[in-house]
Amino acid sequence: QKEVEQDPGPLSVPEGAIVSLNCTYSNSAFQYFMWYRQYSRKGPELLMYTYSSGNKEDGRFTAQVDKSSKYISLFIRDSQPSDSATYLCAMSAGNQFYFGTGTSLTVIP
Amino acid sequence: NAGVMQNPRHLVRRRGQEARLRCSPMKGHSHVYWYRQLPEEGLKFMVYLQKENIIDESGMPKERFSAEFPKEGPSILRIQQVVRGDSAAYFCASSPYTGDGYTFGSGTRLTVV
Q1: Nearest alpha-carbon partner for B105 in B44, B39, B43, B34
Q2: pLDDT (tens digit per residue) in B17-37
């Protein structure tokens, strides 16, 4: 079983839609949870970072962590074509981060 | 703030040659991490370094791969006697503290021919 599972998609939505991206994990020791956005041929860019269960909001982005279910989500409101990218979840219990394989998102104008 | 700088962006090596990948962390960041990304796979941890020290190399292949982060200069990931399976994107990240969110560089895309 992989440490982190993420549906690769691809996911295609119309502009303005609400997008929900999800990851599950198996290691209950994970304490830090992150979402990264990666454009083609670029390095991942940190979007959200949290270390507790609950919700964290930043503009159009909301990160949700449910440690009891070992489940994290990223919601994107009012999605824009510029949001088209691959979204990677990541989590950590210490030195190294464990990444999901990424979900490819396309927002259609 | 120049961010995490990696060079070269693209590197082509013949089988059996050596590849040297460089990473300069963000100013003020003393923690450096190397990850490898293969097509259809997520980022895989390779090694975590602080200045002059390897803290965790549990993700590094036991042979042909080495990493350093000297007191002066960039961190170097070195792959000796490259094989086709080493072809991948190699990303460096840095952070000011252990466990903090990383800042990634743009990566070095290694192609072994």
Answers
A1: B34
A2: 999 999 999 998 889 999 999
